[in-house]
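@channel sequence for tomorrow's demo:
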Amino acid sequence: MQLDSFTLVPARVEPWLLRMPRSAVSRLRLLVYRVLGMRQGKNNRMEGGGRVRRCSQIAIGDNNAFTEGCWLWPEDTEFSGIRIRIGSSNYFNRNVMIDACGSVEIGSNNMFGPDVYITDSNHRFGGGIPPGQRPMDRGRVQIGDGCWIGTKAIILKGVRLGDGCVVAAGAVVTRPVAAGQVVAGVPARPIGGAEPGR
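structure tokens (generated this afternoon):
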């Protein structure tokens, strides 16, 4: 019997071996963030390639997975409260960015596709003053439980997503969405309700 090199490691062991170094680095990364003030539950995973700042303004629950390239980005100013609050058992796919100058609150059991952008603020403009020289217009974003946010969706200031919402890929959400609704488009509009059981 001839063995090729790809059959030497049983299929059930391979994923564990490939995850082991990444898991160790993730634990070290989360330990550093905890020392810097991030409030954390247990069993979280945070891969590299992203950025985190102002750790003391971030609180996350248990069993959250942040895959490669995720940014948790509170405004870079002193603040004694929490600007980014995340519940438990959420999955953040590659390159999700949470940009918080006011408050972003995310519930539990949500799934975020790759390249999702969530922001609670925008630049003011007009009056002959460049936007970068004007103060930020701060607000709030709230995402309930059990939502599914598709690839490259954008969630803007003032949005509240009710429980069980589905946001289609590429949608730009500019207004609140009722529980269980499915929204799509630019700007996002309701196109139906979620399937039973969502």
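heads up for whoever presents: Helices lie at 14-35.
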